[in-house]
Amino acid sequence: MALHECPSTEGKRGGTAGVRARPQARDARVFFRVFPAASVHPPKGTTTGAAPVVNVPPFAKGTAMFKPVDSRVSFPKMEEEILTFWHRNAIFRRSIEERPEDRLFIFYEGPPTANARPGIHHVLSRVFKDLVPRYKTMRGYRVPRKGGWDTHGLPVELEIEKELGLKSKPEIEEYGIAAFNEKCKASVSRYVEEWTRLSERIAFWADYENPYVTYDNGYIETCWWIFKQMWDHGLVYQDHRVTPHCPRCGTSLSDHEVSQGYQDDTPDPSVFVKFRVKDEALFKRGHPRGMGFNDRMAIVAWTTTPWTLPGNTALAVKEDARYGIYQRGDDLLVVAEALAEKVFGEAVQPLMVIPGTFLVGMEYEPLYRPEELGHQVMRFGADGHLRKLDPGEPTAGLRKVISADYVSLDDGSGVVHTAPAFGADDFQCGKDHGLLFLQPVDLRGQVGEGLPGAGKFAKQADRDIEKDLEERGLLLKRSTIKHTYPFCWRCSTPLLYYAKPSWYIRTTRQKDSLLDGNGRINWYPEHIKAGRFGNWLENNIDWAVSRERYWGTPLPFWKCEDCGHAMCCGSKAEIVEQAIDRAKAEALDDFHRPYIDEILLRCEKCGGSARRVPEVADAWFDSGAMPY
Question: Is the pLDDT of residue 32 over 60?
Fold first, then answer.
């Protein structure tokens, strides 16, 4: 900032600091005064960047240069006096209005949720938020600072669940979605006054007289418009994928949310399981019929999630690895040769060594057959999509050994248990190899009927499954490991990786432009650019934007009940235009669930009745929609 001679400021408005200095031979102290922003410019006849002109004010002989400083000054009282001065003189408003309209720097606050009192940790984040707008204001920019309130999302719902003593989604639905959402709406403004008072007290400037509020119909409609723009550009789609799922909250979590809930040194079981192979399966792979093993051969697989074993539909091996057949008691066990000593705890010689290629395609006996217990069974088709098997359609011989690149020879047995319903890699293998798809654990994380641990939470059923396998002679060994595991960052429930249909935004299509934008940001500290944030962008996956909850922006997607055609509406006007009951749609004055769910549309493809999908949008989508 250029410094120059400034006239007296009595009666003039202030806001940006200019400087007067009086250098003296024997006393180099500098005297500072505050001058108006309007006077901060280079002196006439000089160019930008010219050296400052320093005015030396005259002082009468014997006059003190500084006013006396009280050693018992009260800083809180001083701050309150400054706040009073700001309010009395409308300093915040004038800091915007008295700067040129053609030199804008616009700030939208990343909004807090006011359903709880602010804590001391909020002070630091608000100070950081205030620094850049204040700096730009001092540089002469006109800086509107739009305050806002984040009102949707799971944190709000969880607080209301606690207040009402509700513990699950069925209990919420029994209570009533309308009544539940009304409670959520009332709660989000409960502590607005405390938040505003904190913001003012720490000198955080933002316009809270005209804030944006994410539950307003107008704001929701803006989100719908954004979805429609992306829909029209092919950036929104529904797919059956594995997502991190919280069984307590009953919804998926975004990649960012998962990163906030990892816990180190989490104990989990480590089990080595035997999958029996009948001689006939060996003969099909070319093994001589006169050299059978009397059905004593078993492939050993390792897992830390025994609860997923009933969903097993394949075993993955490393195609170019060597596998040994080792005799342990009456069993002939197949283990990667490089890992045999770790698995058996001692040096051991194989009876035979076979290549991974020999195992690929081999049939084996499943540990469990949930399809025979009434559980739904599906299979991946040639197009990669799941289809339900017809009643009585055989599944015998469909569980086989496959090859997978992710199989490691660093730990385990060199054989990976594969359950497409419970893992991203497993799910992809299911698509690639046309595997069966079995999901005998529901969205609440409860094990299905007829299986060990039935009715229990999945991770609590681990012991039941281990005990059952041990009694049947199918458990080689077990121990406990400690590793990093993801928990729900809101309720601390262990997350389950669970395959289910979700709605996605195709963020991967914008990967290059995101990386380019990141490269042009001046990061502090600098290592964030290519480190944590850069790595996150580099490994960007499509955004699972749907949430199976209640208090949020309803996704504006409708599906025909007859032909399955999906439609997107970008405004209330579009909904009214396509509504079967136009009058009901026009009367809609609350865009939340359950009211929006009652609006049926006419299918644009077959003329049938289309119903809105039940999901709401990730609350982070609300926050990011503000600039629109």
Answer: no
First to last CA, the chain: 34
Interstrand relation of 16-19 and 297-303 (parallel, antiparallel or unpaired): unpaired
User: For 467-508, how does the pLDDT look when each residue is reduced to its tens digit (9 = 90+)?
Assistant: 999 999 999 999 999 999 999 988 999 999 999 999 999 999
Give CA angle at 21 (16, 24), nearest 5°.
Answer: 170
The three-state (H, E, C) secondary structure of 354-369, written as one string: EEHHHHCCCECCCCCC
Distances (CA, A) of 271 to 274, 275, 369, 478: 10, 13, 20, 4
Report yes or no: 495 and 488 within 8 Å, Cβ to Cβ.
Answer: yes
Nearest to 247 by CA among 448, 441, 451, 450: 441
Is 451 strand, coil or helix? Answer: coil
d(CA 293, CA 285): 14
Query: CB neighbours (10 Å) of residue 149?
Result: 21
Tell me the CA distances in angstroms from 402 to 363, 379, 516, one per residue in order.
Answer: 10, 16, 39
d(CA 623, CA 130): 18
**Cβ-based neighbours of 163, under 8 Å, separated by 6 or more:** 183
Cβ contact 461:307 at 8 Å: yes
d(CA 279, CA 102): 82
Burial of residue 557 (CB within 10 Å: 0-12, 13-18, 19+) is buried
Question: Taking the CB of residue 580, how many other CB atoms lie within 10 A of it?
Answer: 14
pLDDT digits (tens, 9 = 90+) for 381-432: 988 889 998 877 889 889 999 999 999 999 999 999 999 999 999 999 999 9
Is the pTM higher than 0.90? The answer reads: no
CA–CA separation, 227 and 205 (whole Å): 32
Give the span between the Cα atoms of 514 and 533, in whole angstroms. 11
Q: Is the dihedral of CA 35, 40, 46, 50 positive or negative?
A: positive
Q: What is the CA radius of gyration of the chain?
A: 33
CA dist 345 and 343 (Å) reads: 6
